[in-house]
Amino acid sequence: MNLLDAILDARGGGAVRDLSRNFGIEEGQAVSALRQLLPALSSGLKRNVGQPEGLESLLGALKSGNHARYLEDASAIGQPETVGEGNGILGHLLGSKDVSRRVAGRAAERTGLPEGLLKKMLPVVATLAMGALSKQTTGRGGLLTRAQEAPGGNLLNSLGPLLDADGDGSVMDDLFSIARKLF
Fold first, then answer.
1. Fewer Cβ atoms within 10 A, N terminus or C terminus of the chain?
2. What is the pLDDT of residue 78?
């Protein structure tokens, strides 16, 4: 399951309903925004995991943070601390506000939603992505547990499906596609 599917499935679609309500848009528009914003976040995750100590840093964040609450708690999406934490996540994943602006601008072109709205949504979407990643990796029966228990288990390989933004089975095409568009 990739990040988009994990968010869409959270609480039977409740996370998407909360996102749409919080930003005053229809659910279909929220899904469209997620489809356009998540590939950049996924690429940032892949880039970070590929750096020295990046995987260890990500696992530490997933273990120590309570990121799953963003998918489980309907009130979390509208909280100011959610935006603050989301901006911190964006700083790690995208590196600069300029990249975040370009991501929002490109998403606006593709969704028809206002760029300003997508800029506001991006930190919240980042927290939802970390929530989905947290649930998939550290929860009961999650990838972290399975990779540690499996003989020769490799967590990096296990994370591949979650980081596959377009669900085609390859994370590399997503990384190259986003890099071409942003830089």
1. C
2. 83
